[in-house]
TrEMBL record:
NADP-dependent oxidoreductase domain residues: 16-315
Name this protein carries in UniProt: Aldo/keto reductase
CDD domains membership: AKR_AKR11C1
Organism whose genome encodes this protein: Paenibacillus zeisoli
Molecular-function GO term, any one: oxidoreductase activity
Domain of life (superkingdom): Bacteria
Lineage summary: Bacteria, Bacillati, Bacillota, Bacilli, Bacillales
UniProt xrefs under InterPro entries: AKR, AKR2_Oxidoreductase, NAD(P)_OxRdtase_dom_sf, NADP_OxRdtase_dom
């Protein structure tokens, strides 16, 4: 496993880390036994960083991480998130009393004394512009409740606003072959300021695995069913904001990236890790096989300059105009 510095935090994290949205909920049926087995397999392979949130299964993914990392608390770093368990538009949700309550509830579920990276979970842009929540997080850091803090953002503009606050040490963004915009301005500026970049939804909710057809279906409790058009939260969180059928069509045109790289999954992750400004990629998983497939990216050759140019042209000509929602 290769490790990268998480900005200026002093934390060294595995370049392939994992997100736990899928094992918490909203990705269809998942068994806890399979989740715990997969978490163990990831850690045994050298993964030392996991991303979660208090709303993933109403805290269930945090509880699973507590079980999986028991006895390894000093060597396994955890990032969690807050605010979406309440009305994200209510300014009082970001008060000291409120955020401390969220934080202590997560600490209890995680069975830890300190959160390594505490992130605001896709708040409205007005909250970021107001900036009072960052003073609250500064206070929690001074109290030792959190080591560092960051923000999970939906748009490049939100990310740039966050960079105006020196306490922000990490940004979590949607970035993949279908969502290339953050690489233009946001990533270089974040790197210049010592801010780490965590990449979520690197496979565009599975589109970039190449395994779907237009007739693929998903369970009713899977966000790829109930949020397909942004019915429950930002449409960009599902299929990178692309209409599903269009996403499947575009993914077929990308089948070539898997040649010589095992499969499209590994190739898609390799494309992200080839960007020098990325700290780590945090794909989701439901079982050991998916963990192992994602970890296979470490053996995949980098993209050539010609291939990178081809993928950029593909994005600009065929993908960019199809993305729905702000990004």
């Amino acid at each position: 496993m290769k490790y990268r510095q998480l900005g200026s935090t002093g934390l060294s994290v595995s370049e392939v880390s994992f997100g736990t949205w899928a094992i918490g909920g909203s990705w269809g049926n998942v068994k806890d036994a399979n989740s715990l087995e997969a978490l163990a397999a990831a850690m045994d392979a050298g993964v030392n960083f996991f991303d979660t949130a208090d709303v993933y299964g109403d805290g269930h993914s945090e509880e699973l991480l507590a079980k999986a990392t028991k006895g390894r608390e000093d060597s396994i770093h955890i990032a969690t998130k807050f605010c979406r368990a309440a009305d994200i538009y209510d300014p009082s949700v970001y008060s000291y009393e409120s955020v401390r309550s969220f934080c202590e509830a997560s600490l209890k579920r995680l069975n830890r004394e300190r959160i390594d990276l505490y992130q605001i979970h896709c708040p409205p842009q007005e909250i970021l512009q107001d900036g009072e929540v960052f003073a609250v997080l500064d206070k929690l850091r001074e109290e030792g409740k959190i080591r560092e803090y960051g923000v999970s953002v939906e748009t490049v503009e939100e990310g740039l606003i966050c960079l105006e606050y020196p306490g922000v040490k990490a940004l979590q963004v949607i970035f993949n072959i279908f969502r290339q915009k953050p690489a233009e301005v946001l990533f270089p500026k974040a790197h210049q300021q010592g801010v780490g970049i965590l990449v979520r939804l690197p496979l565009a909710s599975g589109l970039l695995t190449g395994k779907f057809s237009e007739n693929s279906t998903f369970d009713a409790d899977d966000h790829r069913s109930f949020n397909r058009n942004g019915e429950s939260f930002n449409v960009g969180e599902t299929f990178a904001g692309l209409p599903f059928e269009k996403g499947v069509e575009l993914s077929r045109e990308l089948a070539w990236i898997g040649e010589g790289r095992g499969n499209m999954t590994r190739a898609s992750l390799r494309w992200i890790l080839d960007n020098p400004h990325i700290t780590c990629v945090i794909p989701g998983f439901k079982n050991v096989a998916q963990v192992q497939d994602n970890l296979g990216v470490q053996e995949v050759p980098a993209f050539t300059e010609d291939e990178l140019a081809r993928l950029r042209s593909f994005y600009e000509a065929k993908v960019q105009g199809e993305i729905r929602g702000p990004y």
